[in-house]
Amino acid sequence: MASDNAVVTGNRVFDWGVNESGAVGINNVGLTDPATNKIANNEIRCYGIPVINGTGSNVVLNCPF
After folding, report:
1. What is the C-alpha separation between 10 and 44, in angstroms, rounded?
2. Strand partners, 9
3. What pLDDT, on the 0 to 100 scale, is given for residue 16?
4. 10 Å Cβ neighbour count for 8?
5. Burial class (CB in 10 A: 0-12, 13-18, 19+), 43
6. DSSP-assigned letters across all residues of 1-65
7. Which of these, 52, 61, 56, 60, lies nearest to 24 by C-alpha position?
């Protein structure tokens, strides 16, 4: 996510297959300040790194399905 003041909530971010250690579900890099983004209430599955620079509570589900 390459923006500031964004809201990312209520999404299902699922990968298929094995849980790859380097795979990222949501990468919050921001435009100038990633802390201004709200990332909360998402379901994330099968990513080694569910959220980078997360700002809220997300649900990380077990992999594989």
Report:
1. 10
2. 40
3. 78
4. 21
5. middle
6. ---SS-EEES-EEE--SS-EEEEEEEE---SS-GGG-EEES-EEESEEEEEES--S--EEE-S--
7. 52
Quote the pLDDT of residue 18: 66
Model confidence, pTM: 0.84
Residue 50 in tokens: 């569910």
What pLDDT score was predicted for residue 21?
A: 75
Q: What is the mean pLDDT of each run of 10 residues along the chain (65 residues)?
A: 95 81 91 95 93 91 80
CA angle at 62 for the pair 8 and 19, rounded to the nearest 5°:
85
Six token digits for residue 8: 């990312």
Which amino acid is located at 1 in the chain?
M
Hey, where are the domains in the chain? 7-59
